[in-house]
Amino acid sequence: MLHPPHQPLPVAVVPPQRAPAREDEAGPWHAEAVCRRDEAGLFFAPSKEPTAARLAREEAAKRVCARCPVMVDCREHALLQPEPYGVWGGLTAAERRVVLARRRRREVELRKSSATERIARAG
């Protein structure tokens, strides 16, 4: 349907819905994220942000994450994707890279340990 120029388009009003409880697992985890109610700019850096401003913004974002009921789900999402920017699950992109590097080292060590055990049992 075409509308005459300079006339606003009709807007459908959708009533807010409560996300299902986490035990249900029927809905997406992010439906319960506290950050959905906050400004996205808090979680993502503007271009050429000064270091002091970035650190303050990231700390403010982490405080929001700290009170979030789905923080662990958010963090795992960001680690599995991996999300290259922003604060996710209370971690900055740099902090997530450290976590991922530690996980990779742990996996390598576990594989080596497992291989050593198999050789010892076979021996």
UniProtKB/TrEMBL annotation:
Binds 1 [4Fe-4S] cluster per subunit. Following nitrosylation of the [4Fe-4S] cluster binds 1 [4Fe-8(NO)] cluster per subunit. Its cofactor is [4Fe-4S] cluster. GO terms for biological process: cell redox homeostasis; negative regulation of DNA-templated transcription. It is found in: Cytoplasm. The keyword Iron applies. Residues 34-98 form the 4Fe-4S Wbl-type domain. One of its GO terms (molecular function) is DNA binding. Keywords: 4Fe-4S, Cytoplasm, Disulfide bond, DNA-binding, Iron, Iron-sulfur, Metal-binding, Transcription, Transcription regulation. Residues 1-28 are annotated as: Disordered. PROSITE patterns: 4FE4S_WBL. One of its GO terms (cellular component) is cytoplasm. Upon Fe-S cluster removal intramolecular disulfide bonds are formed. The Fe-S cluster can be nitrosylated by nitric oxide (NO). [4Fe-4S] cluster binds at C35, C65, C68, C74. Belongs to the WhiB family. PANTHER family: TRANSCRIPTIONAL REGULATOR WHID-RELATED. Acts as a transcriptional regulator. Probably redox-responsive. The apo- but not holo-form probably binds DNA. This is Transcriptional regulator WhiB. It comes from Streptomyces termitum. The lineage of its organism: Bacteria, Bacillati, Actinomycetota, Actinomycetes, Kitasatosporales. The gene is whiB.
